[in-house]
Write a structure and sequence with these properties.
Number of strands: 2
Distance between the termini: 71 Å
Shape: elongated
Helix content: 55-70%
Order of helices and strands: EEHHHH
Radius of gyration: 21 Å
Length: 132
């Protein structure tokens, strides 16, 4: 039986997010860190002037999805259930993107957001009034 070679691991922080890499040795880890940093920086450059839909997907993938804990895992600070993640995803895909998804993120105003909230509140009131 052959013994597997020892593996090294390293971590780094980019834009407040912690990333981990594993490699054969320290040089391999450094190379993987450089590649991951380049990938992250390219993503950021692509999002210089994103639409709401583009940014929403990036936000879900980069900031929300990593916080989803596996079923049966103990509740920890800054984590969420798959059900919570699905709720965020539904709200974005069914409410926000249809309303303002094609707008550039920097062009969104508080009036756009207030209109979305008012429309959703009206739907909720309508459902409540017709459910009795």
């Amino acid at each position: 039986m052959t013994k597997s070679p020892a593996r090294k691991s390293a971590s780094f922080t980019y834009m407040g997010q912690r990333y981990y890499v594993k490699g054969r040795d320290e040089a391999d880890c450094k190379e993987k860190i450089a590649l991951k940093l380049a990938e992250l920086e390219n993503k950021e450059k692509a999002l210089v002037n994103p639409t709401v839909a583009d940014w929403a997907q990036t936000w879900l993938d980069t900031y929300v999805k990593p916080k989803v804990r596996k079923p049966g895992t103990a509740k920890r600070r800054n984590t969420m259930t798959e059900k919570s993640y699905s709720m965020y995803e539904r709200m974005i895909n069914n409410i926000i993107i249809p309303a303002i998804g094609r707008k550039k993120l920097e062009a969104v105003t508080d009036t756009h957001l207030r209109n979305i909230l008012n429309r959703e509140a009206t739907k909720s009131c309508f459902k409540a009034a017709h459910s009795h």
